[in-house]
Design goal:
- The structure holds two protein chains of two kinds.
- Chain A is an alpha+beta fold.
- Chain A folds into two domains: 11-119, Alpha-Beta Plaits (2-Layer Sandwich), CATH 3.30.70; 138-208, no CATH class.
- Chain A has nine helices and six strands; from the N terminus they run αβαββαβαβαβαααα.
- A five-stranded antiparallel β-sheet of chain A has the order 3-2-4-1-5.
- Chain B has two domains: 9-65, Alpha-Beta Plaits (2-Layer Sandwich), CATH 3.30.70; 80-229, no CATH class.
- Classes of the chains: A alpha+beta, B alpha+beta.
- At the A-B interface, strand 5, helix 5, strand 6 and helix 7 of A face strand 6, helix 3, strand 7, helix 6 and strand 14 of B.
Chain lengths: 215, 251
Amino acid sequence: MTHSLHRRGNRESLENDFIVLGCPATGVNKVGSAPKTRMFLSICHKHGPVNLGDMKTGNIHTTTMDNILEKCTDGTIVQVTYDNKDKIVSLLKDFKENRPGISIIISGVTDVVQECMHEAGLGTIHSLEYSLGTWGNTERLPQFEILELTTMCGHAMIAENLIDKLLRDIKRGRRTIDEAAKELAKCCSCGNINLTRANELFGKLLPKYMVRHLY
Amino acid sequence: MKVDQDKCIACKRCIPYCPMGTIQSFHRHETIPGRVFIQIDQDACTDCGMCYRADICPVSALYQPEEAWPREVRGILSNPLIEFAGSQVPGRGTEEMKTTDVKGTFLPGEAGVGVELGRPGIGAYFRDVEKVAMALAPLGYNFAEENPVTHFMENKQTGKLRPDVLGEKATSAIIEGKCKLEELPAVIKALQKAAQEVETVFTVEVISKVTPDGQVPTKEVLEDLGVWYSINSKNNMGLGEPSFNFYPEAQ
């Protein structure tokens, strides 16, 4: 499961995009992990995430934090998304003092994540997974600007046509950019959509988008 | 996913939510005069449930029937809310590097390699999944036991899948496993060749244990091969407990 790995974008867009995952290990510390996962979520919540969720229960844009905490069971994998480095440094400092005990993973620009770890006094990254990009019949993919938005959901639940529809809605005054970003968060129940980044990407796409039919 | 033709009013609100694109067609109802309804192309649909979960249908016409084997593999791999019993992980893969700090999944000298077919947004038939799996199998690549695709193999030595799943399609299907670091170049080259032969797209990822002095062993291999890798990565912080001892000889 690599759903936070293959986000597309340039450095400027990705360097303020972090997904923090909490994951108990089957066969090691999964039994009795629910309180640890709740502790992980509570710590994460203090540091100002833009999204937070559990794929089965939903995220803070579709349900409440209390409901997410309540529905945590042994084995629940949770994701928390942040939009700036300072929040990650303060979060890691907190984890250094208060370790929930489950595995913690951060997806982000490699050198920025490493810098955050050093600033928090956590040393080097333990294990690392690189994305080598998309191979094969890539002519079938949509344009890069659309992929920047759709690849924020690693389960590929954001449709290319939905981006098109949301852009059309914004142009027609039916939705604000903020509401369009929240619609993406609704489709990606895990909580991986970075709403700050989605706002920026929609803003960047709008001038390029031509409404074919006004009504 | 199916549409109840007696309820559907063809308002088209569900269409943009389909991750597989425009796979719907319009039909006239045979007994209700003037009524048009939508039909979903059942071959193209992966039963991911996105249109249903979007809660967009004003007349509740969308429904997901319980599917029998082999069609049920579509929902298992495509609907992120369905947990595969073999991996006990919701979603379509395994814990892979997420818990390597406590399980020792990827040891020094090993490279994890994951290939996710169909992502992003294209979908993959299992005949393509088999092509990639069979390209990797002879190269000392060990398929992850708890991964759903591994469970669909009739021969784990060759990577051959059960024939009854080959015509099924998933939003994405991940082949996960590992090899020795020295075998990584051959694995990458086999994937480059397989990329020419599949109808779909696939994303590739490589995992390694970072050395205590901060070196990423796979980085040098990728740079020697001239293979592009992204500036963003997934990083295990090593904070899980109890921590796995990766260097027992050092004690």
